[in-house]
Amino acid sequence: MFNPNLKVVGVTNGGGGEASIEKPGESDLNQYRSKRPSEVSGVSTLPSSLPSHNIAQAKDFMRVHPSDDYWSPELCFVNVPTPGARDTKHLIIEDLAVAFLPPGAIERKRLVLAAKPGDQFFLCEVPTRNLDNKYNCDNVAACERARRLWVKVVSLREQGQHGYETKVAQDPDAFPEPRWPQQTLNALISTAFGQRVINTPEHPGLKRLIGAKVS
Predict the structure, then answer these.
(1) How is residue 22 annotated by DSSP?
(2) Main-chain phi, psi angles of 67, to 5 degrees
(3) Which residue has the higher pLDDT, 141 or 40?
(4) How distant, in Å, are the alpha carbons of 45, 97, 112, 116, 193 from that of 48?
(5) For position 211, what pLDDT does the model report?
(6) For residue 87, which of 24, 33, 79, 128 is within the disulfide window of CB 3.0 to 4.6 Å?
(7) CA dist., res. 77 & res. 80, Å (int)
(8) Phi/psi of residue 72, each to 5°?
(9) Cα separation, 62 vs 51, whole angstroms
(10) pLDDT digits (tens, 9 = 90+) for 140-194
């Protein structure tokens, strides 16, 4: 490939004289120096998609976002069988769910932005129905405490009891405060669920649940 920085300073002549090539001078590497930080100050880099699970599945201390802006309204979910894996949770429009599926197949819950130590973010599933159930009641209570404290929940099932025990970190400042992302909750949920949003009767997930052939 032609290099415009190379200059021929000698010329060949009919007598077969050799041409000499002048090498370019050393480059100033400062002009190539990276000057921008790897991330915006105070805003952590997010994975492409946040996982979604309940507070018990965190199996670690966790916090939830203190602002109601990062607590969703009650949403509808269904679990779609996935070959070679556990069922995959999908968001679904309630009218579609009610029209095509039995009531027991529909899960209703909120999603709230949550974090484990080290800015490990996830979408925490918070129950909104059957709050007389001890597990659901303890789940909601723990999430409310996690707005301001680092908490960890442990199932009491192995002790022959129902519900969760909520453990609060011994030191309130045991872990740095989460560097909450600036994306809206809607944006985070949209990215997390991607194509797993059933908003039409033709969605493959809904067809799988009702045993219909996918076009």
Answers:
(1) E
(2) -85, 140
(3) 141
(4) 9, 28, 17, 17, 11
(5) 95
(6) 79
(7) 10
(8) -75, 165
(9) 14
(10) 999 999 999 999 999 988 888 889 999 999 999 999 999 999 999 999 999 999 9
- The mean pLDDT of the chain is 85
* Rounded Cα–Cα distance for residues 66 and 112 (Å): 10
Query: Residue 213 has which token pair?
Result: 């052939």
Q: Half-sphere exposure of residue 10, counting CA atoms within 13 Å on the CB side?
A: 10
Rounded distance between C-alpha atoms, residue 54 and residue 127, angstroms? 9
pTM, entire model: 0.76
The Cα 24–Cα 148 span in angstroms is: 61
- DSSP state string for 29-92: GGGG---S-SS-TT-PPPPSS--EEESGGG-S-BEE-SSGGGB---EEEEEEEETTEEEEEEEE
pLDDT digits (tens, 9 = 90+) for 52-78: 999 999 999 999 999 999 999 999 999
